[in-house]
UniProtKB/TrEMBL annotation, chain A:
Classification via PROSITE patterns: PPASE_MYOTUBULARIN
Lineage: Eukaryota, Metazoa, Chordata, Craniata, Vertebrata
Official protein name in the record: Myotubularin phosphatase domain-containing protein
All copies of domain Myotubularin phosphatase, residue ranges: 199-639
Pfam family, one: 3-PAP
Native organism: Chiloscyllium punctatum
Top-rank taxon, per record: Eukaryota
SUPFAM superfamilies: (Phosphotyrosine protein) phosphatases II (SSF52799), PH domain-like (SSF50729)
From TrEMBL, chain B:
Protein name (database record): phosphatidylinositol-3,5-bisphosphate 3-phosphatase
Family: Belongs to the protein-tyrosine phosphatase family. Non-receptor class myotubularin subfamily.
Extent of the signal sequence: none
Mode of membrane association: Peripheral membrane protein
Taxonomic lineage from the root: Eukaryota, Metazoa, Chordata, Craniata, Vertebrata
Compartment(s): Cytoplasm; Endomembrane system
GO-annotated biological processes: phosphatidylinositol dephosphorylation
Entry keywords, A to Z: Cytoplasm, Hydrolase, Lipid metabolism, Membrane
UniProt-annotated binding residues for substrate: N336, I337, C398, S399, D400, G401, W402, D403, R404
Length: 754, 624
């Protein structure tokens, strides 16, 4: 069954407090291995450091390195706090640690270890700096020196594979593929998480067109089997007025073949379209006109199209990368106290929040063109596969409540990122070979969604924990979802792998599991942490006069565009558009471009937003965020969760979440009962077997009085054991309050390493 | 009138109702009562009203005991957010009320005169017209423009200055006239003896003493204090003589298990010649001895050490570790009242009326407001940690022991004792650590005083409430009260509607017979507790809650400091969504009960032996 699947990344307290014996440890360890996972190196008598001034709290155990992860297995229970889990903490998936730092303190040697490097001294200590801001330290004083050296080298080797096919996902897929041959029914796994629409099939797109009511658009198959372009997805949606032959003609005029692709349709008639820039040349104007005309024709009653050049409106990918690097350095800075004094200014200087605000602002403005002015919007950029992904997906989260459900959100990521060819391989730098192309646009997008979630806590089916976990999953090389630059590359690599490995699978290629198969990572209980208890009020059903009536509001009557008519376009700013619309064109009004909008636009925007805020809000309609700096906040769960000093013990949002969760569980129980009565009015006993969707349940809470004690602002993560940090200046508090953080004796700071 | 009724009248429908309620409570008072007794309307006004329909629609609702003093029509309010609005401006003894029916819904501005810090008349550019600039204590300024008319008595400016600064004009504060009746008597909230009994006092080491019953030992202390049992009255007098203004060390809180205590006092009068007082030394030794768990006493001097040295040169000072054996002295490096006043002034510049989006964070940084909040919280955490973890008794003082000391002891008690995190407990905390121990509210706020530049004014209490708000943000389920509760306290700190915060000391309050002449703020609050209850509250009994005193978690309290800016309102307050869920649950519960009845009826009628389902749903939580 699902729940019995191995979970390699549980952050949660283990069910049993007693730890297994040595033999059991081995058994547990073996059980926790995934198909295709092998233990490559193992060192016993390793100490995992908890405090740096004393080894009294260290945990003793075995350090394992597999071709997938590092595991530390211990019999000791952390003395610090109930609810903290050493086993879970030290288990980190590969491809996370960019820095390994073996140290020999007798000889005062230290080295940053990369793959294929030599380690000349015998390490007494290993410090791992993880990409998710964690820092973990192991000591080898009591272990066999040679074995310590070996495990350091092995970790260095396996953490940075040089070839895509050496990533663990392939080994896993091979194993699954080979086993499935012998299996009678081996398809269970792949189907689990996959109610998510992957947008790899014709039917997915067709359904989406119907769902949004985009009747003037059609799915095209010109790129079936990547016949036309290796950059485009196999299926995508185009204006009905463009025939396949037209498309084939147009493809070469766009950078990277990326012709206009439909994203979304608003019920009033406007559509969102994304594309790359048209290559400069004599045909530029002609093609441009043709495209705009076709898109305008797909609008039931409007002849205007709004074009937004994202390259000119937003920071570029390297600026975003630089901002994240500054933010990261600030968050994990050793000098907690010193940076605290000027924290706000330092945070501002990273510009991360400023960029978040810019992306949200731009998305909100474009969204507003679509639903309030009912004008179709084209977003374009040089290559059409970076900023387009961010803006298109944020806009849809704002505009369409479907994308605020878990399945909808996942399908949105498939649609606008995975299938649309966001270069995950390059941007995440999975192979560590080129930092030049690295950029955290996907994190930027998640952060923007988090900002929306902060402002509309009841509008999303998921929680911030879901977003954080999704961000973590970006770097787990087990999943195929975020590994490749394009769907073509995934297909090709998988086929290649199958052919070279002489694998005979169903179909021609091996399938890496999608990240959406959450059961590969978590137990059913853990997964309930994804469910936002505040959301249930929005879909709750209530029985009235014998019929089950849904509270859910019909989409069509939920937004009324007339409210926003105060925002009108002024002719004065609609100039300089002759590039797009030749005058002889039947289109009377040229399209405005945000870049040319002047002050009056800002004033209008302001007025419009003010109106928006003064109206009652429908959480199942459109949500537009506050765009003031005061409302753009740091996503603390994601960036500060591993910092012991920043942890609020017994507090944090979770303490309110917990109460909402219990209430939501109550409501669901009552709903079940009502339904039960309707099915079987004579029912004598009430079965308690249905699944609870909330993490905290009323019955649990009354039984476990200590629940409050494991709450913290990092929940469900725990910074206990993430050490090697300088202590808090001059107070003895760290001993009692801050989970034992103590000075890391090294003189080197992390900032230097970075 | 029910507050809910009111919100229906004045708030736009939908999701912003909750917020509007807060804003209304913030703009105050109309929520309390809106019926005007006809006697209160002055003759001048009645004449005016009868002749003008528009003015009728724009007339001000009045409290019992409140009378209109001036009315001006066609006044323009220059709102920094929505521009100029024309309407009627009314001045009463209590408030400034502006209403315009130009807009839909009508625009109203309802400002208690107590919040006014300064009024300036600006001579008009045009003939007969003039402008008013009103600087408020609650983070806003108001601008009006109007035509000067010849209603001698009804002149706006004169009436405003008269009733905004009654103390300077030898008039009574409006609180003395306010005669609203509440079902709950707020003056009974705090009973010193009961509170000490709750703490387990008296015990063998500590006694509830009445030596100060006539305020002779110390005129800024309460009549009832807790002092060590073994200290004789004579010695107390000597100790009093050695401490600034006789503010001897007295107990604020005692740990229920370890018996470690928090005592508060003013600085010792050591002076430049290192004067000693053996009674004082012995007194502190006694305090230490009362706690068997520790052989140490920690003295927290809230001031910066340099400042403490300076006051030593002027006759004050601090306990030297050589004179006080076993005592450890720690300076908490908190700045003085002038620095805090200046910081808040800068903050007002940053948040009102315009926000510089690009420099929002660095601008806040440059005011140091949050930095001072951090230092204060960090100080309280250190004190609490000594008491809780090291089981050591502590003495807290600054110079006079009524500003920083009150902040620190009350915050520490909030960290240590879950009782103070309830609504009732928090009221007791304010009554005890602030009001009874002589925080000089009248002077620090400047009630009814026109001297806006008075150097004794300082937002010390506001800073404390901000710290409390920071704690509620970090521990959203640990406090019984909500944000509206804190906002309401701050609004009535200035409003002069209630007697609670009017005077400097208990003695003064007795003299003015506050309890008979005025209404307590707690009467108002405790009469409608639901409004002020945090729906997420879970009693963290016996939990010591240490806030993280780091800028990483401290936030600017936008809902207070920037609340006049309509763009800063929260979209959907989470507690509102929670209340909606509570409503859904109640409905479902009703439905289930109905169904259950139906089923059991069916069972009875069919004479079946089946038992009706009795399995009960999880217990109903009563918070709504």
């Amino acid at each position: 069954m699902k729940s019995s699947r191995p979970s390699f990344r549980s952050y949660l307290p283990p069910a049993e407090s007693s730890f297994p014996s040595r033999a059991e440890v081995n058994r547990v360890c073996e059980a926790a291995l995934l198909p295709g996972e092998l233990v490559v190196s193992e060192t016993s008598n390793v100490r995992k450091c908890i405090a740096t001034d004393t080894s009294a709290h260290d945990l003793s155990g075995t350090l394992l390195c597999t071709n997938f992860k590092i595991s530390f297995i211990t019999k000791d229970v952390t003395p610090f706090r109930r609810g903290s889990v050493e086993l879970a903490l030290t288990t980190c998936a590969f491809n996370i640690p960019p820095f390994l730092h073996p140290v020999n303190d007798e000889r005062k040697k230290r080295k940053v270890l990369g793959p294929n490097q030599r380690l000349k001294f015998k390490p007494t200590e290993l410090i791992i700096y993880c990409k998710d801001f964690r820092i973990i330290r192991f000591r080898f004083d009591e272990s066999v020196p040679e074995s310590a050296r070996k495990i350091c080298l092995v970790i260095a080797h396996y953490s940075q594979p040089k070839d895509l096919q050496l990533l663990f996902g392939f080994a896993y897929a091979r194993e699954k593929c080979q086993n499935s041959v012998n299996k009678v029914n081996g398809t269970d796994l792949e189907l689990d998480g996959l109610q998510t629409s992957l947008f790899k099939a014709y039917s997915d797109w067709d359904r989406e067109i119907k769902r949004t009511g985009a009747s003037e658009w059609r799915v095209c198959s010109v790129n079936e089997h990547y016949a036309t372009s290796t950059s485009l997805p196999e299926y995508f949606v185009v204006p009905s007025s463009l025939a396949d032959e037209d498309l084939k003609q147009l493809v070469p005029s766009f950078n990277g073949d990326r012709i206009p692709m439909w994203c979304w349709h608003h019920w009033t008639g406007s559509s969102l379209v994304r594309m790359a820039n048209i290559k400069p040349g004599p045909k530029l104007r002609k093609h441009n006109t043709r495209i705009l005309k076709a898109i305008a024709q797909s609008h039931p009653d409007k002849s205007e199209v709004f074009k937004s050049d994202l390259d000119k409106s937003l920071p570029n990918i390297s600026e975003v990368q630089a901002a994240l690097m500054r933010l990261k350095q600030l968050c994990i800075n050793d000098l907690f106290e010193e940076t605290d004094e000027k924290w706000l200014s330092l945070l501002e200087n990273t510009r991360w929040l400023e960029y978040i605000r810019l992306f949200l602002k731009h998305s909100a403005e474009l969204a507003q063109w679509m639903y309030s002015e009912n004008i179709s919007v084209i977003i374009h950029e040089e290559e059409g596969r970076d900023l387009n992904c961010v803006i298109a997906s944020i806009m849809q989260v704002m505009l369409d409540p479907h994308f605020r459900t878990i399945l909808g959100f996942q399908s949105l990521i498939q649609k606008e990122w995975v299938v649309a060819g966001y270069r995950f391989l390059d941007r995440c730098n999975h192979l560590g070979d080129s930092e030049k192309h690295e950029s955290p646009l996907f994190l930027l997008f998640l952060d923007c969604v988090w900002q929306l979630l902060q402002q509309f806590p009841a509008a999303f089916e998921f929680t911030e924990t879901y977003l954080t976990v999704l961000y973590d999953s970006l770097r787990i090389p087990l999943f195929g979802t975020f590994l490749f630059n394009s769907p073509y590359q995934q297909m090709q690599q998988s086929q290649d792998f199958a052919t070279n490995g002489n694998l005979h699978c169903e179909g021609k290629s091996v399938e890496l599991p999608p990240v959406w198969d959450w059961f590969l990572q978590f137990t059913a209980k853990d997964l309930t942490l994804f469910n936002n208890p505040l959301y249930i009020g929005k879909s709750v059903t209530c029985v009235q006069n014998g019929t089950i009536k849904s509270f859910k509001r019909a989409k069509k009557n939920s937004s009324s565009s007339s409210i926003y008519s105060v925002y009108t376009m002024k002719n004065g700013k609609l100039s300089d558009q002759h590039d797009f619309f030749p005058r002889r064109n039947s289109l009377q009004r040229p399209s405005p471009d945000l870049m040319q909008l002047n002050e009056s636009h800002d004033r209008n925007m302001e007025r419009y937003f003010r109106d928006w805020y003064s109206k009652p809000l429908d959480l199942h309609g459109i949500i537009l965020p506050h765009l003031s700096s005061a409302h753009t906040q740091l996503w603390k769960q994601c960036y500060l969760r591993w910092i012991p000093e920043a942890q609020i013990t017994n507090g944090g949002f979770i303490s309110a979440f917990h109460k909402i969760s219990i209430l939501a569980d109550d409501i669901e129980t009552l709903q079940q009962r009502v339904r039960q009565y309707w099915c079987d009015p004579c029912l004598t006993s009430f079965p308690d077997s249905y699944s609870h969707r909330m993490y905290f349940q009323a019955k649990d809470f009354s039984e476990v009085p200590g629940t409050l004690d494991c709450f913290s602002s990092s929940f469900p993560f725990s910074p206990v054991g993430n050490l090697c940090r300088r202590s808090i200046l001059g107070t003895p508090l760290s001993k009692f309050l801050l989970t034992g953080a103590k000075t890391w004796p090294s003189t080197e700071t992390l900032a230097n390493d970075e | 009138m029910e507050p809910d009724d009111f919100s229906c009248l004045y708030s736009p429908p939908g999701s912003h109702v909750e917020w509007c309620k807060q804003l209304i409570a913030a703009t105050i008072s109309t929520q309390l009562s809106t019926t005007a007794a006809p006697d209160n309307v002055s003759k001048d006004y009645r004449v005016l009203r009868d002749g003008n329909k528009l003015a009728q629609m724009e007339e001000a609702p009045l409290f019992p005991g409140e009378a209109i003093k001036a009315i001006a029509k066609d006044v323009t309010y220059i709102c920094p957010f929505i521009g100029a609005i024309s309407g009627t401006l009314t001045v009463t003894e209590y408030k400034l009320y502006f209403k315009s029916v130009e807009r839909d819904p009508p625009f109203t501005l309802d400002v208690p005169l107590g919040v006014v810090s300064r009024i300036e008349k600006i001579a008009g550019i045009q003939e007969n017209s003039c402008g008013l600039e009103i600087v408020c204590k609650d983070m806003r300024n108001l601008r009006f423009a109007y035509k000067q008319e010849e209603h001698g008595k009804l002149e706006i400016f004169e009436n405003l200055t008269q009733y905004a600064f009654p103390v300077s004009k030898n008039l009574p504060l409006f609180a003395m006239k306010y005669k609203e009746k509440y079902p709950v008597q707020g003056w009974k909230v705090y009973d010193a003896v009961a509170e000490y009994k709750r703490q387990g006092l008296p015990n063998e080491s500590w006694v509830i003493s009445k030596t100060n019953s006539n305020y002779e030992l110390c005129d800024t202390y309460p009549s009832i204090v807790v002092v060590p049992t073994s200290v004789k009255d004579d010695d107390l007098c000597k100790v009093a003589a050695f401490r600034t203004r006789g503010r001897i060390p007295v107990l604020s809180w005692i740990h229920p298990e370890s018996q470690a205590t928090i005592t508060r006092c003013s600085q010792p009068l050591v002076g430049p010649n290192d004067k000693r007082c053996k009674e004082d030394e012995k007194y502190l030794q006694t305090i230490m001895d009362a706690n068997a768990q520790s052989h140490k006493l920690i003295i927290f001097d809230a001031r910066q050490s340099s400042v403490a040295d300076a006051s030593k040169a002027k006759g004050g000072g601090y306990e030297s570790e050589s004179a006080y054996s076993n005592a450890e002295l720690i300076f908490l490096e908190i700045h003085n009242i002038h620095v805090m006043r200046e910081s808040l002034r800068k903050l007002k510049d940053v948040v009102y009326p315009v926000i510089d989006e690009a420099k929002w964070l660095s601008n806040i940084d440059s005011t140091h407001w949050l930095e001072y909040i951090r230092i204060l919280l960090a100080g309280a955490v250190r004190i609490a940690d000594k008491v809780e973890s090291a089981k050591t008794s502590v003495v807290v003082h600054c110079s006079d022991g009524w500003d920083r000391t009150s902040q620190l002891t009350s915050l520490t008690m909030l960290i240590l004792d879950s009782y103070y995190r309830t609504i009732k407990g928090f009221e007791v905390l304010i009554e005890k650590e602030w009001l009874s121990f002589g925080h000089r509210f009248a002077v620090r706020v400047g009630h009814g005083d026109e001297n806006h530049a008075d150097a004794d004014r300082s937002p010390i209490f506001l800073q404390f409430i901000d710290c409390v708000w920071q704690m509620t943000k970090q521990f959203p389920a640990a406090f019984e009260f909500n944000e509206l509760f804190l906002l309401t306290i701050l609004d009535h700190l200035y409003s002069c509607l209630f007697g609670t915060f009017l005077y400097n000391s208990e003695q003064q309050r007795m003299k003015e017979e506050v309890q008979t002449n005025t209404v307590s703020l707690w009467s108002y609050i405790n009469s409608q507790l639901e409004e002020f209850t945090n729906p997420f509250y879970v009693n963290y009994e016996n939990h010591v809650l240490y806030p993280v005193a780091s800028l990483r978690h401290l936030e600017l309290w936008v809902n207070y400091y920037v609340r006049w800016n309509p763009r800063m309102r929260p979209q959907v307050p989470i507690h509102q969504s929670y209340k909606e869920l509570l409503g859904i649950r109640a409905e479902l519960q009703k439905k289930v009960e109905e169904l259950q009845r139906e089923v059991s009826n069916m069972a009875v009628s069919s004479s079946s032996e089946r038992a009706s389902p009795t399995h009960s749903v999880s217990p109903v939580q009563t918070t709504v």
